[in-house]
TrEMBL record:
Transmembrane segments: 63-84, 96-117, 123-142, 154-175, 195-217, 238-269, 284-307, 314-331
Record's keyword terms, sorted: Cell membrane, Membrane, Transmembrane, Transmembrane helix, Transport
Cell location: Cell membrane
Major location (coarse): membrane
Signal peptide start-end: none
Protein name, UniProt field: Iron complex transport system permease protein
UniProt-listed Pfam families: FecCD (PF01032)
Keyword Iron: no
UniProt record similarity statement: Belongs to the binding-protein-dependent transport system permease family. FecCD subfamily.
Entry GO CC: plasma membrane
Any one biological process term the GO annotation gives: siderophore-iron import into cell
Domain of life from the UniProt record: Bacteria
UniProt GO MF annotations: transmembrane transporter activity
Lineage: Bacteria, Bacillati, Bacillota, Bacilli, Bacillales
């Protein structure tokens, strides 16, 4: 019992330390950029805002929104990746690898190019529809055959569907070069230029999905032990998987609707979270949320400083981090679930 208490205290302490790191990254996102702003000036922009000061305007209307959006989207992508890896028992599962991001982007491009959709709310629903369709197709293809759903088949199905939607998107943009400029930031992934008005329409969906995911920790613990054991413990397997799938679609679709295609966070973070939290999803999920938010906000800060005064698209920064990690997982064939 004492050993268990020590482990619990260690998890709590580590979680608090990681939360402090997130706070530091959030503060750095407000202070650092093309125009460095002191911490004192940043605080004054909130306590005594002066609309005649450029530094105050930059903090309130540029850096604060992108820090908040980076935090929310990073947490959402990480939690969606964690749920996908648990549901499929595949260490390489993530929204970007399984085509969910590309499905959402394809629907956004179709809406913008062919139907002149510009409303964020409409784009959000299109992103949801694309993410849901991609997830459904991948699940069906991965379940075909006598063996049913297997990690290898679902990875192959995800890669195929991801490439399919990506090729469709590129094909549309080849015939509509003007449309390319409108959707370029969705293709590259960026938090630059985003406002809190873009987050507000999808925030209720993200918060609801996140809370539901955190409350499902115990059920997921039983699910990953095997369907037969989970059924024996009285769990409704179909309901749990359907709920997990819906959460993944909401979180991934919302993220694409706000910042575009930001990959690898859903792949990398669940493994780091399990390193700190062990195998208990009641801890893995909140750890994933904190770590995902920290990674995306930190990547955004780095993107501003690498080739200053220009910015690197944040999707490129996350790919630099996640690409080698994906290769490592694929080569080692990790079975951390």
């Amino acid at each position: 019992m004492k050993v268990a208490n020590v482990f619990q205290q260690k998890k709590v302490t580590t979680f608090i330390l990681l939360s402090l790191l997130l706070v530091m990254a959030f503060a750095s996102s407000i202070i650092f950029g093309q125009t460095p702003i002191s911490a004192e000036e940043a605080v004054r922009s909130f306590t005594s805002f002066d609309q005649n000061l450029t530094s105050h305007i930059v903090v309130r209307y540029d850096r604060l929104p992108r820090a908040v959006i980076g935090t929310v989207v990073g947490a959402g992508l990480a939690v969606s990746g964690t749920l996908m890896q648990a549901m499929t028992r595949n260490p390489m599962a993530s929204p970007s690898i399984f085509g969910i991001n590309n499905g959402a982007i394809f629907f956004i491009v179709v809406g913008m190019v062919f139907f002149s959709v510009s409303s964020l709310v409409s784009l959000m629903w299109l992103a949801f529809a694309g993410a849901a369709l991609a997830a459904l197709i991948v699940y069906i293809l991965g379940s075909l055959g006598r063996d049913g759903l297997t990690p290898v088949k679902i990875v192959l199905a995800g890669a195929a569907i991801s490439a399919l939607f990506q090729s469709y998107t590129q094909g549309i943009l080849v015939f509509d070069e003007a449309g390319l400029q409108d959707v370029l930031f969705w293709l590259a992934g960026s938090v630059s230029g985003r406002t809190l008005d873009m987050l507000i329409p999808v925030l209720p969906f993200i918060v609801t999905a996140m809370i539901t995911a955190l409350l499902m920790g115990r059920a997921i613990n039983l699910l990953v032990t095997g369907d037969d054991i989970a059924k024996g413990m009285g769990q409704n397997i179909l309901l749990i998987k359907a709920a997990m799938g819906a959460i993944v679609v909401v979180l991934a679709g919302s993220s694409v609707a706000i910042v575009g295609a930001v990959g690898f966070i859903g792949l990398v973070i669940p493994h780091i979270a399990r390193f700190f939290a062990g195998t208990d999803y009641r801890w893995i999920l909140p750890y994933s949320a904190i770590l995902g938010a920290f990674l995306l906000v930190g990547a955004d800060v780095a993107a501003r400083l690498v080739i200053r005064p220009q910015e690197v698209p944040i999707g490129v920064m996350t790919a630099i981090i996640g690409g080698p990690f994906f290769i490592y997982i694929a080569r080692r064939g990790l079975k951390s679930l």
